[in-house]
Amino acid sequence: MSQMKSNIALGVAAVALALTVYNQVITPSTPSHDSLKAEHVTELREELHTNNAPSSRNSESQSALDALDRSALVERIAYLEERVLEIENRAFSNSPSTESMEETILAVLEEKERKDKAQNREDNPVYGFYEDLPKDYDLKLKTDPEFAMKVSQDLKTKVLDESLSPTERLSAMGQLQMNMYILNRTQGEMFDYETVDAVLDISRNSQDEKLKVQALEVVAHSPIVDSRIAKSLQDIIEKEPNKYMKTMAAEGLIGQYYQSGETSPELKQQLASDILDLYNNSSSSEAQLVMQRLIRDDELLEQIRRDAGQ
């Protein structure tokens, strides 16, 4: 609409200008008429200026708004910078001291160590005692006979105590067996058939498959040589459905055979004969396969045959 008004005003101004020129050329002797025409042109020019004024005012208004926006943005940035500086200063003034940070770090490390120990006990409860042993435990066992005797006696008591949980009894047996290795003893008054048989009983009767396996592992690696232990291992080889336990018992039986040569030649002959029976004529094909897998060496097989008197 404003553009149309501007166009009309320009057209009227052009017509008025043309009339003025015409009058000046054709009738120069009428000054009063010239004055009227000049006033009319002036009015038209003022009207034209008036019609064009909104566009100019709009431009001026936009420039003013832009200037206000920039000013507000600068003020906002300055405010945010002040806030950031204030927060940084507050954080710096509230930062913990070196001693406080050290205490916090130590607390975190202690908590992590506690959780690691708990996780190790859960994953392998039989050998969880490792986590609680003092650093000088080995040396004290070797240099203090009274300490070694008391610890071993307490551990044997725990192994035989059926009121304790199977996990506690197995853990005590594992520590007792470790003590014997540290002291370079294969057996002793605190580490004998009675303790091994108690662990075998856990393996036979426990409803926890994990504990059954761990108990048998303790027995299979036991340095105690006894015909009753060998017989129990042979029964496991023939009757246990768990293939891993069959293999573990077979390893324990062969271990009994090896160790018996140092203490009892008669027992060694009997064990060699039992091993050959399992190897050749077992009523369980799986048990026979386990023994054949373990005795792959022809030289070892010939040695067992000689010891069995065959």
Outline the structure in words.
Among the domains are: 113-213, no CATH class; 225-309, no CATH class. The protein has 13 helices and no strands. It has 310 residues and is mainly α. It starts with a helix and ends with a helix. Residues 34-49 have a biased composition (Basic and acidic residues). Residues 50-64 have a biased composition (Polar residues). Residues 28-64 are annotated as: Disordered. Keywords: Coiled coil.
Question: What characteristics describe this protein?
Answer:
about 300 residues, mainly alpha, about 80% helix, disordered N terminus
Share of helix, binned: over 70%
Task: Count up the helices.
Answer: 13
Give the averaged pLDDT, no decimals.
Answer: 76
What are the low-pLDDT stretches, counting only 5+ consecutive residues below 50? Answer: 1-38, 53-57
Query: Could you give the order of the helices and strands?
Result: HHHHHHHHHHHHH
Structural class: mainly alpha
Q: Could you describe the largest sheet, including whether it forms a barrel?
A: none
Coiled coil: 70-121
Biased composition (Polar residues): 50-64
Region (Disordered): 28-64
Biased composition (Basic and acidic residues): 34-49
How does the SSE layout of this entry go?
Blueprint: H1 2-26, H2 31-93, H3 98-123, H4 137-143, H5 145-160, H6 166-182, H7 193-205, H8 209-220, H9 227-239, H10 243-263, H11 265-281, H12 285-294, H13 298-307
Helix pairs in contact: 1-2, 5-6, 6-7, 6-8, 7-8, 8-10, 9-10, 9-11, 10-11, 10-12, 11-12
